Amino acid sequence: MQRLLFLVVLILSIFNYFGCVAPGSSVGRVSIDGTLVSVTDEPIPDKEIQIILPAAYGLGRLDLIMNKPEDFGHKDEQFFVITDSARNFHYVIGDRLYHVSCWWLPPVGCFPKRPPAPFLLVRLSDSSNEYYAIKTYNGEFKVYSLEGNEIPLADSSLLEIVANYEPDLDPKISETIGKIKLKVKSE
Question: pTM, whole model, 2 decimals?
Answer without folding.
Answer: 0.82
